[in-house]
UniProtKB/TrEMBL annotation:
Protein name: ATP-binding cassette domain-containing protein
Superkingdom as given in the UniProt entry: Bacteria
Keyword Iron-sulfur listed: no
Sample GO molecular function, one term: ATP binding
Pfam families with a match to the protein in the record: ABC_tran (PF00005)
Residue ranges of every copy of the ABC transporter domain listed in the record: 7-233
InterPro entries linked: AAA+_ATPase, ABC_transporter-like_ATP-bd, ABC_transporter-like_CS, ABC_transporter_ATP-binding, P-loop_NTPase
Entry keywords, A to Z: ATP-binding, Nucleotide-binding, Transport
Length: 284
């Protein structure tokens, strides 16, 4: 088994009839990293997660999770996975506690863990409330609780913050970071570029089934910083745009020396701008 990597994806291709959904995807995720697969709806993100979690057998290529071929995943591997997918699998008539109790019994987790994880996701006061009475944000936190309560080595999160309010998204991000701090590997799909820039160690931009760019978010943005300019907001409200070069250093120093500067920003693009440049498509 590879001691350094949690997931290896080697030339994965997926076709449905005449339609190619994924084409020659190759990626490696190191243990303990947060990886983001970014792309608009229909790019193939969910299809790749289904292959990695054994729900779908690929047309070609090979993928391994914790050293095991994803076409041959066993219960011992599944017990090391946590999943937050589009189908929540919650039982609406059961309470939060009873939903987690069913899961705890399947995975032989001590029942004492239930209150602990409900507290961690901010649902302890709602432990006896039926799922049907929960808000969308509370449901998502309950799904996160179920995914985390057995301390998985790998978390698969398919659009975990989709359509949630900013406060709930922030809470979910904190939970993700806490799991990473414990050593978990996180495979995240999202079309939210800001989410990816905040959370991910590495990202891959996926367009029409192909990876068009891969790397650390900040390095990708710098790579496509063709403008390479500095924007300075002065205290009198004026805005000055200068080329980020040695020739501008004197002017910038002069503005700081005269205490005129309110703020200063470089103009490197964000991930969404890079994606638009590479593909001509917006994230929608």
């Amino acid at each position: 088994m590879d001691c350094e990597n949690s997931i290896k994806i080697m030339e994965i291709t997926q076709r449905f009839g005449d339609k190619t959904v994924l084409e020659d995807i190759s990626l490696t995720l190191k243990k303990g990293e947060i990886f983001g697969l970014l792309g608009p709806s229909g790019a193939g993100k969910t299809t790749l997660i289904k292959i990695l979690t054994g729900q779908l057998v690929q047309t070609g290529g090979r993928a391994e999770v914790l050293g095991t071929d994803t076409r041959k995943l066993t219960s011992s591997i599944y017990t090391k996975m946590g999943m937050v997918l589009d189908n929540t699998g919650l039982y609406d008539r059961l309470s939060c506690r009873d939903n987690l109790a069913l899961f705890a019994e399947i995975y032989r987790i001590p029942k004492a863990k239930i209150r602990e994880i409900l507290s961690a996701v901010g649902l302890l006061e709602a432990e006896k409330r039926p799922v049907s009475k929960l808000s969308k944000g509370m449901r998502q936190r309950l799904v996160m609780a179920r995914a985390l309560m057995h301390s998985p080595e790998i978390l698969f999160l398919d659009e975990p913050g989709s359509a949630l309010d900013p406060s709930t998204v922030s809470e979910i991000h904190n939970l993700i970071r806490q799991e990473q701090a414990k050593g978990a590997t996180v495979f995240l799909t999202t079309h939210n570029m800001e989410e990816a820039e905040k959370l991910c160690d590495h990202v891959a931009l996926l367009n029409q089934g192909k990876i068009v760019e891969y790397g650390k978010p900040e390095e990708i943005c710098r790579k496509y910083n063709e403008q390479n300019r500095v924007r300075i907001l002065l205290k009198d409200g004026r805005e000055i745009d200068l080329r980020n070069s040695r020739e501008s250093a004197g002017k910038i120093q002069e503005l700081f020396a005269s205490e005129q500067v309110e703020s200063i920003h470089s103009t490197e693009p964000n991930l969404e701008t890079v994606f638009l440049e590479l593909t001509g498509r917006r994230f929608e």
